[in-house]
Amino acid sequence: MSSDSVVFQAVTFLLIFVFVVFLAYYVTAFINKKALNIYKGNNFDIIDHLNLGKDKNLYIIKVCNEYLLFSVTNNSIVYIKTLTADDVKIKDKNNRFKQSLNISLNNLKKLSMRNLGGNEHDTYKKN
């Protein structure tokens, strides 16, 4: 096998790997979106959820225009308090993917610069 063939196979495997990772991400995001829609109503929305241990959870639920904090266990659901809109930080779900993609691409670029030397168009400088 020639060195060109080995490089071509390595690049092909890398591209296939990246494609599979992106495909897995999109399928997972699609399934997650469908699952979250089960919990969404016209007047109710689960804003956030925190698992505190086995069968112990906190939920922030938006009911109409109020944010309510609940503690949920196997045996009970307890209202804790009403939160103001300033207390609740809602993340933009569409923006998270873009940020994650940019971080991954920058890490890949740094990795290629470190291991492969990069090319003259790369702006990343080694420390």
Structure description:
The protein is an alpha+beta fold. The protein is 47% helix and 26% strand. The protein contains 2 helices and 4 strands. The longest helix has 36 residues, at 3-38.
Task: Tag the structure with descriptive keywords.
alpha+beta
In short:
The protein is α+β, with helices and mostly antiparallel strands and 127 residues long.
Order of helices and strands: HEEEEH
Q: Report, as a whole number of angstroms, the end-to-end distance.
A: 36 Å
Identify the quaternary structure here.
single chain
Question: Which percent band covers the strand fraction?
Answer: 25-35%
Structural class label: alpha+beta
Overall mean pLDDT score? 79
Give the SSE map:
Layout: H1 3-38, E1 44-53, E2 56-63, E3 66-73, E4 77-83, H2 93-116
Antiparallel strand pairs: 1-2, 2-3, 3-4
